[in-house]
Amino acid sequence: MRKISRIRLATPALSADRPGRAERSHQNVRIVLLLTGLFAVLVSASCDKAGAVSEKPPVPVSVQPVELHTPSHGVRYTASIVPAAQVETSFRVAGYVTRLHTIMGADGRPRSLQAGDYVAKGTVLGQLRSDEYAVKVAQTEAQMSEAKSALATAEAQLREAQAALARAAEELTRSKNLFETESITKRDFEAAQTQNEVSEARVQVVESQINAIKAKLSGAGALVEEASLARNDTVLVAPISGTVVKRLAEVGTFVGPGRPVFILADTGSLRAVFGVPDVDLSQLRGGTEVTLTTDAIPGQRIKGQVISIAPSADPRTRVFDVEVAVPKSAKSLRMGMICSLELAGRETPANFPVIPISSIVRPKRGSDLYAVYVVDEGSGRKVCRLREVSLGETFGNRVAVTKGLNAGEKVVTVGSTIVQDGDRVQVVAW
Prior knowledge:
By secondary structure, this protein is α+β, with helices and mostly antiparallel strands. It is 35% helix and 31% strand. It contains 3 helices and 24 strands.
């Protein structure tokens, strides 16, 4: 019995030692698993972080579907209403403005001409101080009067010299006859010859003086005319009948030669001016009738006729200026108004795709090419794809696409300058 007790006592000791080893072994396994799991978590987090950094967020854009456009039967143009004639009136000489033409104002008091007032041809619009010009006229007239007096004196002297020459010639003839009959001496005959020569020389001298005086008189007359013209130019006269568009001077203002004082326009005859490209020029000729409309006068249609077509295109816009005469009955039109008119258009397809002009971009590979960003939704994500297109005519803020797009495709209209080919986008409303 004791032996068995010892064995039983020893057995429990052995059993207690094995569980300790097993427990340590399990702890080591748990540590390894924990480290492995931690490493996997770190690797996963690192991968997620790298993926998050590499993936670009979607770019907010606004899109619009490609639409089909049905053109109208004609091409519309915008014309500006201008006066048939417009002039800038100015003084030819410099000076201070002393007077401007006045009319009675709405308050019953006189006032100077202003924009909107009508003036008749020949009306004195303004006047400069003319004292200095009057002095010049007086000086030149005095010089001319002096020259006239000298001319009168010289002409009197010429008459005397011519009379003396006539007497000397008569005396020479008589002396010659007497000398031939030896009735007088040679000395007397030579004295008669000398007297005749002196008289001829006197006439020539006086004639030369008269020519010089006449030249001086002519110069004095030119000075008088010039001074008088300058004095007359201190008065500004309306060259046409029309409406004052602008007044650019006040009483007391110093104005130089050629500086505009009043701008006048012949508003009795108006013109509608617009530009036409060469492709439509064949539809117009002198006398062609066009119809004008304007938003300022809804419902009114004004008939006009083409009176002028520019012989060459404007070098900057490459269009030909066309003038249309507006009938005088269209008194509701005013200078500066904008009108519309329509001409028969060129043949175009019945329907063709159009897109907003704001969607057009330039591809990097060529500055003379055009492209748009098309939103592709085929892969389940909205991605921008750059696509080159060929463009046609413009219609307001839209342009026709002749190649590269189909109706219904969505193009980026807002945000096309910040997206790139292949970017993800988020469609938003602007």
